[in-house]
Each structure stands twice: as structure tokens, then as C-alpha cells.
Amino acid sequence: MQIFIILLLVRIMGWLLALIKQPPVIGEIIVGVIIGHSVLGNSLELEQKQLKRRWEDSLPISIATIIVPYGAGAALSIYFGMRTSLGSLNDPLHGGITVLIFAVATLIKFLPATLMTKCVTHRSWRFSTSVGILMNTRGLVELIALNIDLQLNILSPGLFTMFFL
Known about the structure:
The protein contains eight helices and no strands. It is mainly α and 165 residues long. Helix 5 packs across helix 6 (125-135) and helix 7 (140-151) packs antiparallel against helix 8. It folds into two domains: 1-42, no CATH class; 83-164, no CATH class. Helices cover 75% and strands 0% of the residues. It has helices at residues 2-19, 24-35, 48-53, 55-81, 92-121, 125-135, 140-151, 157-164. It is found in: Membrane. Residues 78-164 form the Cation/H+ exchanger transmembrane domain. One of its GO terms (biological process) is proton transmembrane transport. It is a multi-pass membrane protein.
């Protein structure tokens, strides 16, 4: 019953945003953020004592919280990737621009997250680097924004491909 209610709320919010000429997926994301994982009672155990006591219950949930986002990311990449035009990257200049965009986007997310983690928490460089790497994941909202820009002809297919990669 909970899943039915969640899906109903997601669809209603998507429909409401479609009425005001906004992408329905934004409303669906808003519902997901508001509801969160805790509604279904599934979340990661963070306390070590709790984890030792309930590892059998926590292990499948932990594995699912790792695998599901990557699977969803792969599925979204396939969906949004259908609009990419890799043929537009045949030119060495465009390939170089793509590499530059990728390098700048990676450094802009990685360096501040790593340095702030080190400065604020005073943890090891290994821990801080791990946080920096985890913060460097592609955001769903970024991909949605790129897709909307492509639909509105703000981005050319070649530039969309560069940013998408």
C-alpha cells in the first residue's frame, strides 16, 4: 500500500508541474526528496553496535542502496544518451573541448569537497579524498537540465554531447 501511495503522489506532483508547463520529472524528484528513504523504513545502519546486532537485516539494504543508484544512473544514461550525437565529436577540437569540460567539472567538485572535509573534520587525507570522490558523481538534476536545454534548442546536439559525457 505504501508503494501505491508513493507512486500516486509522484504522479500527482508530476501532473501538477506539467500543468504549469514545467517538466513533470522535477515534481517527481521533489516528492522523492520530501518522502525520502525513511518512509519505507529502509535506511543504512550507521552505528557500529547496531550494525553488529542487525547485520543480516542491514546487508541487503546496504547493497541495494549501492546498486540501485548505479543501475538507475545507467538506465538514465541510456535514456538521455539516446539524444547524444557522438559523431559530432569526430573533430579533434570538439574532443579536446569535451576533455577540458570533463576535467574542469571533475576538479570543481572534487577539490573543494576534499579540502573542506579535511579542514572541517580534521580527518585523514584518505577519508577526505573519499568524500571528494563521492561528491564527484553526476547529478540527475544536471542531466535533466541539459535535456531541457536541448529540447528548447538552447544547446546544440554537439554541445549537449560534450556536457553529457
